[in-house]
Please model this.
Amino acid sequence: MKGDLFSSEHMVQPATAPGMTVENAKCIRYAVNGEMLARQGSMIAYRGNLQFERKGQGVGGMLKRAVTGEGLPLMAVRGQGEAWFAQEAQNCFVVDVDPGDEFTVNGRNVLCFDASLAYRIATVKGSGISGGGLFNSVFSGQGRLGLVCEGNPLVIPVSAQFPVYVDTDAIVGWTAGLRTSLHRSQSIGSMLRGGSGEAVQLMLQGEGYVVVRPSEATPHKPQQH
Model:
């Protein structure tokens, strides 16, 4: 076969190392030798001897899914082979988590991760309501984390002198060492008079980085069949 479709730009090459790599801007490849974890329904292709198992929710899992809005429903992938993961053609990125690090990320942006990573649910300090990224997954340990983002993300440095304010619907994640709280930018009277609409933001203080997607819209959720 000939044509642009079969050019080296699109042709999958053999994996050169185990674990996670970015196959292209919209897809992550994982060379599995043991076990890894991924978002349910995100596998688009695989080859080799692999088994896919839905992770049991349990009480803790049900709580995680409830508090993260869209939730973080996971599946375990076990065996030896290669699998490719994607989510609605969103852009893909890989984050390396080192011992002593923590990376907080919105559950909707998690695609896959090494089984060596641990994660827990954390509540944004000062928030009394759910939704809008106010509950997030905190990853720690050592390993790689695959993320998706609508468009190209912005990575904004945060310093003690310059806190950063982010729309709660646009937040992707942030590094360890940052303190979070909710910030109200206008009064109730201003909102009633038709203010800017940016009533509440997430304020991040300290030293680190915050990742923001270039969209405030809630991602479209496909219907389940």
Notes: Confidence is low (pLDDT under 50) at residues 66-70, 128-133, 188-196, 221-225. The longest helix spans residues 58-67. The CA atoms of residues 155 and 211 lie 5 Å apart.
